[in-house]
Each structure stands twice: as structure tokens, then as C-alpha cells.
Amino acid sequence: MEWWRCLFVGIVLLMATGSGEAQLSPNFYQSSCPNVESIVRQAIQQKLSQTSVTVAATLRLFFHDCFIEGCDASIMVASPKHDTERDAPDNLSLAGDGFDTIEKAKEAVEAQCPGVVSCADILAIAARDVVVLSGGPSFIVELGRRDGLISQAGRVPGKLPGPDFDLKLLAWIFGKNNLTLLDMIALSGAHTLGFSHCSRFAKRLYSFAPSLPVDPSLNPRYAQQLMHACPQNVDPNIVVGMDPFTPNTFDNVYFKNLVNGRGLFTSDEVLFTNPLSRPVVSNFAANQGNFFKAFASAMVRLGRVGVKTGNEGEIRRDCTAFNGS
Ligand code: HEM
Ligand SMILES: *[C@@H]1O[C@H](CO)[C@@H](O)[C@H](O)[C@H]1NC(C)=O
Ligand SMILES: CC(=O)N[C@H]1CO[C@H](CO)[C@@H](O)[C@@H]1O
């Protein structure tokens, strides 16, 4: 080999191995905390027996965590000054039960394996578990994430998709997180669970366009139902099920709804109205198995976004506070 090629290969090898870039692995805690998954599952099941809100709240928490600074539990950090990620306006709807679920699971894990398992990994396991416990697909969770050292409300704006996004913007923001169009469509299927406040879609009912108050892509009967549930100037705490038929079950009804003009947000319905994504929506609506497979693989890829490994970050003792604080 010519010397410069040798040098080049050497540098590449060094970059791959020498930078401390560790990989996630399903067996990461095999020797340090072999029962971590069953400890987390038990904590989730117990919380779930108290309130079904846990399911959607935990899944959404994982998504928001990963899109802001990567999957590093930065969303969990609380500060008396109310200036961390969870205090950003975008979080308003992050139900407190999601945070509580992760804190409970962390306490249970700490009791058996103190100082070993990251909050980021507990959140990733918990997100998988709530999907399974509500009827969705199971999958193997990769582990070995470290907890982040940055959590600032000011760094949230622009990192999360909005309910008024079109397909191009959705594809762009998921693309920034190494997720494909297919991943994005599959992950949107999480809206088969949970609730939304009226303010997030009221524009589609009352002020879509100057001469066209109701978004024409809304099924007219669905629009009527939504106006009934969300009259103008409704109490801001009122919520409606994002999948009006089975809001507590993880199934493909979300995609059937889209085909029938029953997507709650513009960002939901556009997946069917845009010809680029429509074939996938139709496929998921007709075949729940295909949706489940795509969702499981997209969740694994979501769980890789911006992860810290090796000796980056820390293993937080308390998920809501940096160790140094
Ligand atoms: C595709 C872009 C997305 C947009 C624009 C979006 C937007 C929203 C909005 C506006 C809400 C309602 C918040 C409220 O007012 O209460 C919501 C709820 C929710 N989202 Fe998304 N989301 C997206 C993707 C995702 C993904 C990828 C996941 C998870 C994998 C997810 C999981 C959830 C869940 C479970 C809820 C219900 C929360 C609850 O009931 O507590 N979303 N989303
Ligand atoms: C996306 O993937 C590239 C290549 O593997 C990686 O360098 C980058 O950090 C990833 N970005 C995120 C946000 O995970
Ligand atoms: C659950 C949670 O932490 N919600 C906070 C979101 O941010 C607002 C301020 O923008 C706080 O008032 C909420 O307590």
C-alpha cells in the first residue's frame, strides 16, 4: 500500500475506534444490571394500573426527549427557575404522568442497581413497554445511552414539529434527526394514543382561510364533532382523543382515520392528502402488521438520535437533576 493510503486507512481506523465512540447494544447491562428491563416493566405496569394516561404521556416524552439534544433524558431535568426543556411552551401538554412514570421506574432501578442505569435508557425501555402494554408491537431496545448535561428551555424552539406542518417540513425536521419519510409516517402512528388540547387544531375549524373557515380536508361529520367538543373560546384545559375511536389502544385505526378525513392535525391529515406519503398511509390502514413492523424499526432508529455513549454525559442519580447540582 502506498504510504498515503496507509495513513488514510490508519486515520479512519483511529477515528472509528480511538474516539471512545461506543455503540448501543441490547445487552449493555447484562452484567451490571441484568434485570433492568423487568424492573422497569413492573414499575410501568404499576403506574399504568393507577392511570391509563401513562401510556401516551410516556411515549410522547420519549419523542420530545430525542428531538431535543438527543435521547439523553434532558427533558427530565427540572429547575427551580423553570428554565429547563420541560418548561418550554412546547411542553405544556407533556402530561405530568410521563415524568412521574420515569421517576418511579428510576427509583425502582436504583434500589437494585445504584448508579448504573441511565435515565435515557429507562425512558427508552419505558417507551417500548407502554407501546406493548397498549397492544402495540414489541421490539428489542438498544441500551448504553448516557444522560445529557444540557437542558435549556431556550434551546427547544425549532426542534419539534408543529401540528400545522406540511409534508415538506415534517420530512425536513425528521430528516435532521436521521429519520426517513417512512419512519416519520410510522412514528406519527403514535397519535393512535392520547389526547390533544383544542387550541392545537382550532384553526382548522374556525379560521382555516379568510373565505373558508373549515379545512376542506376534514371529514364534515368529524369537523362537526370537533366543533361540538371544542367551541370557540373553550376552556383551554379541554382535550379530545386524537384517535376518537380507540384512544387507549395502540392499533392502526389512526391510519384508517386519515383515509376517512379524520386526522386531527394538519400534520396528520397531510400524510394522506399528499401523494408522496399517501401509499404508505393506505398500506398501514389496510395492514396493521406492516404498520407495526415499520413502527418498531422507526422506534429503534428514534432511540439512536444524538445519543451520548462511553464517557460522555453522566449516569444521573435522580432523573430530574444533574449530579453536580
Ligand atoms: C409528526 C409530527 C408530530 C407532531 C406535529 C405532533 C404534535 C402533537 C401535538 C400538537 C399533540 C397534542 C398536544 C396537546 O395539546 O395535548 C401531540 C400529542 C401526542 N403525540 Fe405527537 N406529534 C408528532 C409526532 C409524534 C411522535 C413521533 C410521537 C411518538 C412516537 C408522538 C406522540 C404523541 C402522543 C402519544 C401524544 C398524546 C399525548 C397525551 O395524550 O398525553 N407524536 N402531538
Ligand atoms: C446522524 O447520523 C450521522 C452518521 O451516522 C451521525 O454522525 C449524526 O450524529 C446523526 N445525527 C443525529 C441527530 O443523531
Ligand atoms: C409538565 C410541565 O413541566 N409543564 C410546564 C411547561 O411549561 C410551562 C411554561 O411554559 C410551565 O408552566 C409548565 O409547568
UniProtKB/TrEMBL annotation:
Main location, first listed in the record: secreted
PANTHER family with a match to the protein in the record: PEROXIDASE 55, PTHR31517
Gene Ontology BP, a term: response to oxidative stress
Residue sites binding heme b per the record: 191
Site entry: Transition state stabilizer: 60
Tree of life domain: Eukaryota
Binding site for Ca(2+) 1: 65, 70, 72, 74, 85
EC number(s) reported in the record: 1.11.1.7
InterPro entries, alphabetized: Haem_peroxidase, Haem_peroxidase_sf, Peroxidase_pln, Peroxidases_AS, Peroxidases_heam-ligand_BS, Secretory_peroxidase
Record key words, sorted: Calcium, Disulfide bond, Heme, Hydrogen peroxide, Iron, Metal-binding, Oxidoreductase, Peroxidase, Pyrrolidone carboxylic acid, Secreted, Signal
Name of the protein in its database record: Peroxidase
